[in-house]
Design a protein that fits this description.
The chain is of the alpha/beta class and 424 residues long. The protein contains 15 helices and eleven strands. The chain has a single domain, classed as TIM Barrel (Alpha-Beta Barrel). Helix 1 crosses helix 13 and helix 2 packs antiparallel against helix 10. The structure holds manganese (II) ion (MN). Keywords: Isomerase, Manganese, Metal-binding, Plasmid.
Length: 424
């Protein structure tokens, strides 16, 4: 973790300027009838989970270039995640991925306490073979033609739930790579029937206070057809399974130009929005940093979420899911967490009563201008003040660089040579 005095020293340099900016923004917002303190309190209470796999350097299908001081195991990952939360105050939980993060639950809990973190949704993995699984997932997992492979995949998911139960998690996210690469390779209907039957077996193992999130993705690794390819299929799954089953929306898992915020609205309307994997994309499932390409879309998603606040049972999980090839993953995850917070703060500024009036009057121009006005407001002083007040860093990236944390862990963690390509 980073020395608290170093964070305080970093904050002292900018505190006076921040207070002046915050007061000026407060005055501006009060003219719009908005209490800046209320917005700041909501932002301060907001958290997004960090994916354990996000703190390692990712890669592409072509190569992976390891970074200095990469985490060697789940405990190193939790140290890195602890630093992200320490500096941003925005990432209180971690989403684990099994088998990558398999460890003794008591040791995981001890490390979580040491780093000030809790565990968010668990993630299972049947898109690659496991050393201790005798059968291969090459031709699928939950939808495989062989019942023994399906059972092996179900058993794995049940084990992940069991581990999650011991460490305080309350949800499991299931994403599978099942599909096909050739027309005719599979029977779409039979394959989906097999998937549903297997998913029902996982659902049956869910504790009463747990939720099951299924995650859709248009393509990859299957390039012709994918079993859970879009939100429509995902919604059918959630409907078939029951009340504890919800849809997870990964922003990168849609065709270009798809109206994701509208999908979010539909899932909210029918009580099936389970949560998010935030990231950004230009072409496909690029796993780029959240808000790095299309911050307006992120804002529009949050506009739907803020509009739904207070709806009974509305409690989507918020997680980041991105891959870092050219940046220090800790820096990318800090910036992304702040981008998510920024979109939330901007969405809180939308004048909803006025917007509704323009919608009712079919005043398209003024309706969209109302949204834009909130989006254009620079809310950085609100975010920074929320961080300052909770002892996090006003400028997390500067404080992180000044701490030399990466150089320190690089000395303790020998560089891992790449075992091959692929996003890991
Ligand atoms: Mn995802």
């Amino acid at each position: 973790m980073i020395d608290k005095d170093k964070i305080a020293a970093s904050n002292a340099e900018t505190e006076a300027n921040l207070r002046a900016d915050y007061d000026a923004l407060g005055e501006h917002l009060s003219r719009r009838g908005i209490d800046i303190g209320k917005i700041k309190d909501k932002v301060a209470g907001y958290g997004v989970a960090v994916p354990s796999w996000g703190v390692g350097t990712g890669g592409t299908r072509f190569a992976r270039f390891p970074g200095a001081g990469e985490p060697r195991n789940v405990f190193d990952k939790l140290d890195d995640c602890g630093v992200i939360h320490q500096l941003t105050g925005a990432t209180p939980s971690v989403s684990l991925h099994i088998p990558w993060d398999n460890a003794d639950p008591a040791d995981l809990l001890a490390k979580a306490e040491e780093t000030g973190l809790t565990f968010d949704a668990m993630n299972s993995n049947t898109f690659q073979d496991h050393a201790d699984h005798p059968l291969s997932y090459k031709f699928g997992s939950l939808s495989h033609t062989d019942a023994a492979v399906r059972q092996q995949a179900v058993d794995h998911n049940v084990e992940v739930i069991e581990l999650g139960r011991k460490i305080g998690s309350k949800a499991i996210t299931v994403w599978i790579g099942d599909g096909s690469n050739f027309p005719g390779q599979t029977n779409f209907t039979r394959q989906f029937e097999r998937y549903l039957e297997a998913a029902k077996s996982i659902y049956a193992a869910l504790p009463d206070d747990w939720r099951l999130f299924t995650e859709h993705k248009m393509y990859e690794p299957a390039f012709y057809s994918t079993v859970v390819q879009d939100w429509g299929t995902n919604y059918m799954i959630a409907q078939e399974l029951g009340d504890k089953a919800y849809c997870l929306v990964d922003l990168g898992h849609h065709a270009p130009n798809v109206n994701i915020e509208m999908i979010v609205a539909r899932l909210i309307q029918f009580g099936k929005l389970g949560g998010f994997h935030f990231n950004d994309s230009k072409y496909g499932d690029d796993d780029l940093d959240t808000g790095s390409i299309d911050p307006y879309r992120l804002f529009l998603v949050f506009n739907e979420l803020v509009a739904a606040e207070g709806v009974k049972g509305f409690d989507p999980a918020h997680m980041l899911d991105q891959s870092h090839n050219v940046t220090d993953p800790i820096e990318s995850l800090m910036v992304s967490a702040m981008e998510v917070q920024r979109a939330y703060a901007q969405a809180l500024l939308v004048d909803r009563a006025t917007l509704e009036g323009f919608q009712q009057d079919n005043d398209a121009l003024m309706a969209t201008t109302t949204l834009k006005r909130a989006f254009r407001t620079d809310v950085e002083p609100i975010l920074a003040m929320a961080r300052l007040e909770k002892g996090a860093a006003v400028d997390p990236v500067s404080a992180y660089r000044a701490s030399a944390y990466r150089a320190k862990v690089a000395g303790e963690r020998p560089e891992v040579t790449s075992g091959g390509g692929g996003i890991v």
